[in-house]
Write a structure and sequence with these properties.
Helices cover 28% and strands 22% of the residues. By secondary structure, it is an alpha/beta fold. The N and C termini lie far apart (53 Å).
Length: 454
């Protein structure tokens, strides 16, 4: 009898897996904070005998090397991946015994496309395929994006994704569970997955890589690719070099004077509280990245790489969770941190800054006054509808394009409020008169706004 435990890395939109039998198990594409994988194995009462990577990841720092070191597991990495550490090189067709008593073996299948060396792993129980770990190859309803390696390879890799999907569909039974690493919000996915579980049979019926010819599939895949998160350029090299162990001890404590000094020095001070609390009161010059949102993705995307960051949290628990999430993308040690609220973080005699929040109905009532409407959604979202006359700057591009925002009162919106809050904090920090629209864009037209399509 076998088991598969899913380890959600929701902030990055990824999943890792622990699969095994009665005695031993394999960890697949583990996150950098490996303690949760070790805890999962302890709950099962099994030894982690193997750690495998489907590919050298571009969207997060792996914990594979450290997990293998801590557990004594064999570390399996595709042979064609260029890495500078000792590992067991995996070739097409290699078979690995995972748990002899349970009859569990792992078979490597070359599935290039997301990367040239991408490898999927089929878990077999007594010779029968029961699960396939597909990494960034075959996802739920889609595939991993093929443009993260090198621009000249992108079209070739898009076609390889099609071929790899067809190989998996041809070689595996319909009932085989498909367990990808990407596709649950990760920007490594070419589009977002619908649903949380699937099988080879379900993908045959619904995945465009399996229902369309290669030319049409590749053309649409390439046409739909959007901006690559800026921090991705640092993830592959970090993983190829072999990431260092994480340090999750609490950072140095910052008082109000320390915070002011760091802001004056041009460092980033990031407030992790929810956007409602931030709008009501915050340290002037600080930025709002909600701990409950896609903190790691958006902070790592927007912050100049290597810039010192001070974290402001409402509690030690919130701070610790944020630290854990940030190490997954290589933001290893905050320069400092503080907990509490604005009254604790501003110097004596100063008052917290604030800005207004509003709805699309409120915005409809102000358009005649000539306010600036700033849309910070991605281009693909805007294509389905946008407020007539709005300015479009995706939130990830805003820090370098602040001077493109027209003069006047700025009403900033996204699809639901989280990214608008980030953008509003960026504008507020440079002294703009800003209003954050904290509302669902689905209701914009009903609120009386004219919504156009591209």
């Amino acid at each position: 009898m076998f088991f598969v435990d899913t380890i959600e890395v929701s902030g990055l939109g990824n999943r890792s897996y622990l699969a095994g039998g009665e005695v031993s198990a394999v960890a697949v594409d583990p996150p950098r904070d490996v303690d949760q994988v070790i805890a999962a194995a302890a709950r099962r009462g099994v030894r982690i005998s193997h750690v495998v990577e489907t590919h050298v990841h571009n969207d997060y720092v792996t914990g594979g090397l450290e997990l293998a070191r801590l557990t004594g597991a064999a570390y399996l990495v595709p042979a064609a991946a260029r890495v500078s550490f000792e590992r067991v090189p995996v070739h097409e067709g290699d078979r690995t015994e995972i748990d002899t008593a349970a009859g569990l073996t792992l078979r490597a299948l070359a599935t290039p496309g997301h990367t040239p060396h991408h490898t999927s792993y089929v878990l077999k129980e007594n010779g029968a395929a029961v699960v396939v770990f597909t990494g960034g190859s075959l996802l739920i309803g889609t595939v991993g994006r093929p443009d993260l390696v090198e621009p000249r390879l992108t079209e070739r890799l898009a076609r390889a994704q099609h071929a790899s999907a067809h190989r998996l569909a041809a070689e595996l039974p319909d009932e085989t569970a498909v367990l990808p690493t990407h596709g649950f919000g990760s920007f490594c996915s070419s589009s977002q997955a619908e649903g949380s579980d699937t099988t080879i049979g379900k993908e045959k019926a619904s995945n465009e890589a399996l229902t369309r010819d290669v030319d049409a599939f590749a053309a649409d895949l390439l046409a739909g690719l959007e901006d690559i998160p800026a921090y991705y350029t640092h993830m592959g090299p970090a993983n190829a070099a072999g990431p260092a162990p994480v340090d999750l001890t609490p950072p140095a404590v910052a008082d109000a004077e320390d915070i002011a000094v760091r802001l004056a020095a041009g460092e980033w001070v990031v407030d992790l509280r929810n956007r409602v609390a931030f709008a009501e009161g915050h340290v002037a010059g600080s930025f709002n990245f909600e701990a409950e949102g896609q903190l790691a993705t958006y902070l790592a995307w927007l912050i100049p790489w290597g810039k010192p960051v001070t974290l402001l949290a409402e509690s030690p628990v919130q701070l610790a969770a944020a630290q854990r999430e940030l190490v997954r993308v290589g933001i290893d040690r905050p320069a400092a941190a503080a907990t509490g609220g604005p009254a604790d973080w501003v110097r004596e005699g100063e008052v917290p800054a604030s800005f207004r929040r509003a709805t699309f109905a409120d915005l409809a009532g102000r358009l005649r006054d000539g306010v600036v409407v700033l849309d910070v959604r991605r281009a693909s979202e805007r294509a389905y509808g946008f407020v007539e006359g709005s300015v479009h700057i995706p939130v990830h591009a805003l820090p370098r394009r602040l001077d493109e925002v027209p003069a006047g009162e700025v009403w900033v919106h996204c699809a639901g409020g989280m990214r608008a809050a980030v953008a509003a904090s960026l504008l507020d920090a440079v002294g703009r008169d800003v209003v954050a629209v904290d509302d669902s864009f689905d209701g914009a037209e009903k609120a009386g706004l004219v919504v156009r399509t591209a």
